[in-house]
Design goal:
Its cofactor is Mg(2+); Zn(2+). This protein is α/β, with parallel strands linked by helices and 184 residues long. Helices cover 35% and strands 15% of the residues. The protein has a domain at 45-106. The protein starts with a strand and ends with a helix. Bound molecules: 1,7-di-O-phosphono-D-glycero-beta-D-manno-heptopyranose, magnesium ion and zinc ion.
């Protein structure tokens, strides 16, 4: 079984300008790409788990999301970071059409992580979930991910967030250092 880093997208890997779907609005958080390179070299699978309710809400189409995702995936591959999985939830209970669903994949539910664990043979007890919202941490809990990390680069950190998190760090750029410290 493999160890993995489950990565939230908006607010963790890129600046959350609010329902980002255009390449021009996609701004990597400082040091995030270098951190992913290092995490990869430490032997972690890198798995993105992102809520994209903008699709259900009609702010952008699934096709537009997939186009941005292709660009994002290639931008990282160009820098030596091959993502092992990208899982997304296009649903919202108040959404439109086929995407109006009270699904099992929207964080705080654990569906995306559970699917990745099964498909990629991940050991959650050796893995990390990193995100900017309580819902990210809760999804990690549902999937029994041992280490839940909250970053300060997205939504404001709340008291509840601090309580649920095993670690609070400035940004994903600090994750390799945190993991190395834990091992010593
Ligand atoms: O952080 P991840 O999961 O990668 O993606 C979050 C986005 O889909 C958007 O999710 C929304 O939450 P609601 O989905 O409307 O509750 C808001 O938090 C937006 O600011 C944010 O851009
Ligand atoms: Mg986020
Ligand atoms: Zn869903």
């Amino acid at each position: 079984m493999k160890k993995a880093i489950f990565l939230d997208r908006d607010g963790t890997l890129n600046v959350d300008h609010g329902y980002v779907y255009k390449i021009d609005d996609f701004q990597f958080i400082d040091g995030s790409i270098e951190a992913l390179q290092e995490l990869k070299s430490m032997g972690y699978l890198l798995v993105v788990v992102t809520n994209q309710s903008g699709i259900a809400r009609g702010y952008f189409t699934e096709e537009q999301f997939l186009q941005l995702t292709e660009w994002f995936d290639w931008s990282l591959a160009d820098r030596g970071v091959d993502l092992d999985g990208i899982y997304y939830c296009p649903h919202h209970p108040d959404g439109k059409g086929e995407f109006r669903q009270d699904c099992d994949c929207r964080k705080p539910k654990g569906g995306m992580l559970l699917q990745a664990i099964k498909e990629l043979n991940i050991d959650p007890s050796k893995s990390f979930m990193i995100g900017d919202k309580i819902e990210d941490l809760q999804a990690g809990m549902k999937a029994n991910v041992a280490n839940k990390v909250l970053v300060k680069t997205g939504k404001p950190v709340t008291e509840q967030g601090k309580k649920l998190a095993d670690y609070v760090i400035e940004s994903v750029a600090d994750l390799p250092k945190l993991i190395k410290q834990l091992k010593n």
